[in-house]
Each structure stands twice: as structure tokens, then as C-alpha cells.
Amino acid sequence: MLPNDPVVAATERTRLEAGGGTLRSFALTAEPGTIDLGGVMVPTWTYGAAVPGREIRVRQGERLRVDVSNALPDPTSVHWHGLAIRNDMDGVAGLTQQPVVAGKSQRYEFVVPDAGTYWFHPHVGTQLDRGLYAPLIVEDPADGAAYDDEWVLVVDDWIDGTGSPATTPDTVLAGLRRDGMSAMGGMDGTAPASASEPLGSDTGDVVYPYYLINGRLPIAADSRTVRAGQRIRLRLINAGGDTAFRIGIPGVPMTITHTDGFAVEPTSKEAILLGMGERVDAIITVPPSTTPILAIAEGKTGSAQAVLKVAGSSLGDTGGALAKLAASVPFDSARAAAVTAVRLSQKAPDVRHELVLGGPDGQYNWTINGRGYDPARGLPVVQGQRVRLTFTNQTGMFHPMHLHGHTFQVRPTDGGAGPRKDTVLVLPGASVDVDFDADNPGQWLTHCHNIYHGEAGMMTVVSYMST
Ligand code: C2O
Ligand code: CU
User: Fold this and answer.
1) Which residue's alpha carbon is at the smallest distance from atom 3 of ligand 1?
2) How far apart are CA 66 and CA 15, in angstroms?
3) CATH number assigned to the domain comprising residue 358
4) Which of 257, 281, 290, 416 has the highest local Cβ count within 10 Å?
5) What's the whole-model pTM score?
6) Do residues 253 and 319 both lie within one domain?
7) pLDDT at site 181
């Protein structure tokens, strides 16, 4: 069923009628520019000369219209990560649309079906690992009851425009391809090799010079002035290309309320593990004095921070807090439990697809079921089916596996109610079952959200068949 199938438009009409469909219009320009990370200037590509780009905020059921202009030298597209929208607006160049070529523009317009914390980024090559990303927040009428204020925190690993000659994500990928496996042993500076729990010993393919929260280095951290005792909803987004983050606030437990936009039974944790593409919402109570929010690059060297500023105190040394966070046991949000209202019905899968994650094989190739990306050889499903995907990781590295157009439910082996998510960490040697209802016809990419793995082949398509 192709993106332009009448069934796709019919599905959208149903959503429009259900949601009311108030139109909300935004404009977005993808453009080259030099950005200040906090004393470090880097040439990069951005949305509207800011990193992250300015947040888009709408309400559930509204019709979002975004006019995207491409002022980049290359073709681009915009993907609305996590939203179950109409297939022809999903923004996957070469699958759901032609890329938007340099100098041209495209209108995206769709009904926003679910509330939550989402984000957007290009779906062309490695562009996501430049500065092209921004939050997309969908408000729920019920929001705000359990907290006083909110703060969106986007964590990122940064290499674009650094070094001389300047490194870009394209040169990083070319280097990985050129050097193949030899680049992954940590011998030539392109691969970190520090052991780490819980990701295993291989925590990434790329050494990043910087880690950021909201586009800022720790030395020039983004901050928010708050009052002791206030409850703040943090919306955490990992926009990294190759880095999972361990996020924590010294002495302040975080009550996790949502995973990838969907509500979970609240659970209090000291540290959260956030893979690339994942989001977690957590409510905190502001402590009596100024406190950093820390994001350690998991298994790598470096960290990012933001600051909760409380009047009458300034930020102290963060060394002790970083060491404490490094010694913590971070919580993988795949272990949370969906609230009853968002659980899928108990139903046996009508169809099962196994996705064996493999690679690399001496070359820098990452595979699903032994093959690189071939949109013509996807995973067939039929509208109305309950579908189970089983991700089985036969590699030595973790893979945050993402499905477009649906929010699956993780099915823990102990039979508990796993969370609704669209991106799930699959650790080395592990196997993860996820279920979804095939209720959004089209061609939907499923892939590793490590941008380099995805580009090197770890992508396939959940493909609705015409009946
Ligand atoms: Cu965040 Cu295929 O995308
Ligand atoms: Cu991967």
C-alpha cells in the first residue's frame, strides 16, 4: 500500500473528524549557519539558525501544517519522530516522498493523533547528526495537574563542524566505511572502547568532542530559574547520533511518567538511560539549592548539563555528582509499565516478524536478517492485524530500534504490561518483543536510531499489503 493510496487519505479523514482539526501553521527553514555552543563556534546546518530548532507545540487532535524551506546545499526532508500520522507526511526520502531539493520547499500537513513528547529531524543521510532537530510537543487537555511548570531538555552528541578540516557526519560515515572494523577497535581515535554497564563494552562507533543539552556545552549550560519545592515536568529527548545518555540530578529522584509520549505507571528513579530517539518525561521536585541536571555520555568520555537555578545559591562543583551518577544503576524505560488506558488489548499476534540485528562484518555494514536496506523486501502486514516484531541482537553493540507510524507496546518476558514506545533499546545478545496494531496503512520504516547504523544498512520497512 503506497503512501498515495486512497486508504491513507481515508485514514486521515477519520482522524480529522475525531480530533476537531484546528489548523496550526508553522514555517521552518533548514539552513547552513554558524552556531555558538558556548564559546565554541561551529559551522553546521540548523532549523532557523538555532540548535535545537524552535520547538513546535500543538494540542492533541489539531492539524499541524509546517512549510519547510530547504536552504541547504543538499536535499532534505522532515520526519516527525514518534507520531502516528498519515504515511505520505512521514518524511522518509525515497520511501514516502521525494527529497526536498535545495532551494525548494514542501508543505507537511497532518492531524496530530496523540499527546506527548516528540521531535523532528531530517530523514536524509546523516543530516540528523548535524544541528537539524527540534522538539515537537503535543499537549494533552489533562496536562499540568501533577506539576507546576515544564522544561524540555534535548541531549545531543556533537561533532559537526569541529576540527580542521572540519568534520561532518558525512566524513564520519565515510571514515567508518573506509576503515571498516579496524575503526572500531579504538586504535585510531575513531572508536571509544571503555567498558560500561549496562550497554556492554561497545558503546559507540564515534568519538564526539562535545555533548550538549539544548545546544549548550556544560561551561555555558542552559538554565532555568525555579523555586524550591516546585514540581517540574522534564521532557527528555535524545537527539544524539551514536550516544546513549545516563541522566540524573544529584539528590533528586525523578518520577517517570511517560515513555516516548505515552503514560506509564509513575516510577521513581535516580538515573535514566536514554537511547538515541527515545524520550522520557519525568517529574521532579526542585531541591532547596541550585542543582545541575547531568547527562553522562554512557560508556564514553564526557557529559552535558543544564542547571536548575534556585535564588540564593550558585552552582557548586559537579565532580562529585558526576561520579555518583556514573556509579548509579540507570533505568531503561522499556522496563516501565503502561498505564491501563494505553495498554493494547490482550490478543495473540496475527503475524510475527523476527528482525535479527547483525554486523559489522569486516566492512562497516549493519544488517537486519542478514541484509542491508532494501525497501522492496519489507515485512508484510495487513491492516487490522496485531503484529509482533521480535528484535534479536546478535551484535556486540546496543541498538535503539525505532518504528515509524505506530507506538508499539513492549512485551516483557515476565508477562507484565510493558510501556508503549516507538524506540526501544535492544542490548547486545538480547531479544525484545513488541506488539502493535496495524491501523495506520502505508510503508513504515523500522530501523536502528544510531544514524550510522541506519545509514549502513540497519533499516527495513513494515509494509502494508493491499487487500
Ligand atoms: Cu527519528 Cu526514522 O527516525
Ligand atoms: Cu544500531
Assistant:
1) 81
2) 18
3) 2.60.40.420
4) 281
5) 0.97
6) yes
7) 59
